[in-house]
């Protein structure tokens, strides 16, 4: 459904979003128009005609060699470690996060993350009995000075979790300076960094910053392909320091033995097709740039939402400026109007998200967006009365 | 690699088995000749031409509706509950086992299982901090009278884990009487039964006994398709009592969000093709019956192994009758000769497996078997000297 999210509140919203006639700005569903269908048909033919026996059989716990190599090559595009022996293929990045947490976080350990943050991660950390350290962020991502201050005053972390490109939900990009600072803090205070980077390929200008793994030996990098290619194969990977790959592989074996071999064969062939990936990414970036621009224009026209126009990713993080309109109430009213949106509070740890919405520009086509925004305005009118009603009445 | 197994000793053996030139009687790899290639090509075309946008997208945590319905229908073939709302799609049965254990077993809880037993399960139970209660078995499967005796004397279990058809490693089939007895004990003593049944479709005569779920409301049934269709899609499911489906679905969401949508579309379509499954199972059963018969003849000819000829499944559980030949030593010698086999001890909890081997008849073709058995004899000769050497010399 949504890499981004579901605590139960969001699960309910996503269920509502799937109902007939409902338009959704809620989910983190990539645009189906972005899926590389033609190339996939070719690759499926190749797999079935030349590698079926292997692709349909069990494979190694750590992943099919071509898939590990493909992920290592992708990792190399933004710097950091590229040895395929450091790669573990996982069933989505969510599994990478779960395995990392289960293998490395003990009850009572502290995990730091940006507030607001990806609540799928928060659920996993809480499940493991971790204490959460909420670190504020701004348009440059996690405020590493604030983290450093907490550490100087005695806080200790086992893990620091970051979504460095087009953060969910804020769409912030962690600056290179802060990436280096975080790496330095990890070395100094001995914590591990989980770098979860599913949106890096969705930079509208194609520019990605270096991985934190380029600056530190203490990084576990989660490499998703769900937004880059499509979510349906559930093939992702992680890159980890050599000392951690053993325990993570054992955890993977216990969890599900291995990621589906068929998907690994398909995805690794797709990634290695000459010229495919750069061409595909250009198309993807152009598609999402157009959608974001379109939705930004429509939302801006409402006059009661403020937001920074994102430079990539899938989401707007928009603040409600009308007095008395609360995000949860607005969300409930929007569902009545046939529109699914996500309110801020489920993403928040310490801060108040009650005046924020997360709005995805990825799922609807530009032609559906005016109607979605019309419904959003109707929902607001339900909640606060039509604008200017007092003056007019 | 092997649904059956790997503690590290077995992982090493399976790695050795994959080396060029090595013949393997070790792994639980289904025969590639058994994969339904023609039908898969047709189904892949269907999925890409008529359902690509859905098959490549995220899907529900609990599984794609058609897949849940397909698994429910399969469950109904051997009795028990068939409501699709009781089905959770999992990434292999190993994941069903891991989710069940993580959601339901607390440190210090007792889990009972047959000794010898599937060590992939033992690893998961131990990882959860469970105490193991080893229950003896015989050619009729787990000795439920022995379990009842332990319970009468005060033992309490949270779970009882059984592999009721063609048990791994012993190939025993739990009788219907014992299935009913186990169900009765579960009701009386309040434990849950995990019925892990990946080999049920591999009965040489096509006869399967009723599921324990037909006799009890306390069963979590693991439905694998890896041996029935092929392992490569990693699509399986579990059927659980209504009160447990919620916690298991939440555990699934935290673990990996969902099982790969593409595989669910392919496998559910394959299962629902008119006439496909009965025809496929006949072919499968004939193929394995032939292989088992062939290997039984060759192993019987050695004169130093005794075993019950299996009626299905993938494995022989063979006892070494030559004095002084130990299974681990023989396994090491066999690798030297280019043959992978699995010794008994990794499957054993309390009992002594040092005189047993688990030998798979599934992976090698009949034409490769004579050479494999020749190497086994060479390995034995290395370990104990050629037979009759003293008399001849």
From TrEMBL, chains A, B:
Q: Give cofactor(s), names only.
A: pyridoxal 5'-phosphate
Domain Aminotransferase class I/classII large spans what residues? Answer: 49-376
GO terms, biological process:
alpha-amino acid metabolic process; antibiotic biosynthetic process
Instruction: Name the UniProt key words of this record, in alphabetical order.
Output: Aminotransferase, Antibiotic biosynthesis, Pyridoxal phosphate, Transferase
User: A Pfam family in this protein?
Assistant: Aminotran_1_2
Q: Which terms does the record give in the GO molecular function aspect?
A: pyridoxal phosphate binding; transaminase activity
Q: Does the keyword Zinc-finger apply?
A: no
Gene3D superfamilies, per the entry: Aspartate Aminotransferase, domain 1, Type I PLP-dependent aspartate aminotransferase-like (Major domain)
Give the source's domain of life in one word.
Answer: Bacteria
Query: Whom does it interact with, and what assembly results?
Result: Homodimer.
**What family is this?**
Belongs to the class-I pyridoxal-phosphate-dependent aminotransferase family.
Q: What is the protein's given name?
A: Aminotransferase
The organism of origin for this protein: Amycolatopsis mediterranei (strain S699)
What are the top taxonomic ranks of the organism?
Answer: Bacteria, Bacillati, Actinomycetota, Actinomycetes, Pseudonocardiales
């Amino acid at each position: 459904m949504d890499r981004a999210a579901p605590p139960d509140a969001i699960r309910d919203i996503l269920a509502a979003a799937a109902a007939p006639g409902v338009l959704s700005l809620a989910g983190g569903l990539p645009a189906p128009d972005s899926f590389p269908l033609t190339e996939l048909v070719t690759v499926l033919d190749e797999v079935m005609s030349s590698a079926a026996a292997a692709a349909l059989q069990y494979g190694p716990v750590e992943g099919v060699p071509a898939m590990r190599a493909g992920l290592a090559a992708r990792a190399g595009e933004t710097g950091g470690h590229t040895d395929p022996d450091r790669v573990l293929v996982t069933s989505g990045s969510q599994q990478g996060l779960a395995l990392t947490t289960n293998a490395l976080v003990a009850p009572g350990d502290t995990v730091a993350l940006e507030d607001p943050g990806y609540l799928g991660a928060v659920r996993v950390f809480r499940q493991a009995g971790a204490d959460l350290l909420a670190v504020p962020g701004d348009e440059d991502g996690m405020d590493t000075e604030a983290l450093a201050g907490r550490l100087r005053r005695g806080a200790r972390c086992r893990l620091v979790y970051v979504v460095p490109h087009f953060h969910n939900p804020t769409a912030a990009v962690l600056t290179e300076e802060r990436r280096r600072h975080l790496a330095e803090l990890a070395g100094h205070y001995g914590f591990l960094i989980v770098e979860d980077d599913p949106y890096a390929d969705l930079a509208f200008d194609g520019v990605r910053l270096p991985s934190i793994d380029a600056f530190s030996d203490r990084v576990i990098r989660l490499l998703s392909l769900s937004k880059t290619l499509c979510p349906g194969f559930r093939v992702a990977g992680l890159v980890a320091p050599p000392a951690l790959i053993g325990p993570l592989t054992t955890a993977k074996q216990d969890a599900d033995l291995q990621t589906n071999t068929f998907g690994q064969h398909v995805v690794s062939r797709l990634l290695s097709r000459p010229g495919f990936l750069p061409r595909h990414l250009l198309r993807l970036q152009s598609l999402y740039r157009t959608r974001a621009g379109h939705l930004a224009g429509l939302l801006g026209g409402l006059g009661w939402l403020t937001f920074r126009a994102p430079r990539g990713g899938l989401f707007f993080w928009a603040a409600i400026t009308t007095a008395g309109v609360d995000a949860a109430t607005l969300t409930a009213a929007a569902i009545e109007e046939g529109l699914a949106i996500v309110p801020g509070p489920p993403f928040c740890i310490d801060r108040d998200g009650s005046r924020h919405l997360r709005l995805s520009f990825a799922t609807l086509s530009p032609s559906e967006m005016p109607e979605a925004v019309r419904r959003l305005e109707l929902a607001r009118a339900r909640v606060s009365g039509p604008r200017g009603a007092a003056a007019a009445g």
